[in-house]
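Here is the promised in-class demo. Please do not try to memorize the tokens; focus on the logic of going from shape to residues.
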């Protein structure tokens, strides 16, 4: 169970790269798939969030 800060941290981990790379690309659409999210969120990130909450 994560609070608002935990959710924000997860969103930042998933979207940060795309937020900086997509504006300079020709892509018109960005879809977050489960494999993409899992790649961006490491086990250590989740472990830290559980410790904080």
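The designed amino acids, position by position:
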């Amino acid at each position: 169970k994560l609070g608002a800060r935990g959710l924000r941290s997860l969103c930042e981990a998933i979207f940060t790269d795309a937020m900086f790379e997509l504006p300079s690309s020709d892509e018109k659409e960005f879809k977050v798939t489960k494999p993409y999210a899992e790649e961006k969120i490491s086990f250590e990130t989740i472990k830290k969030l559980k410790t904080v909450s």
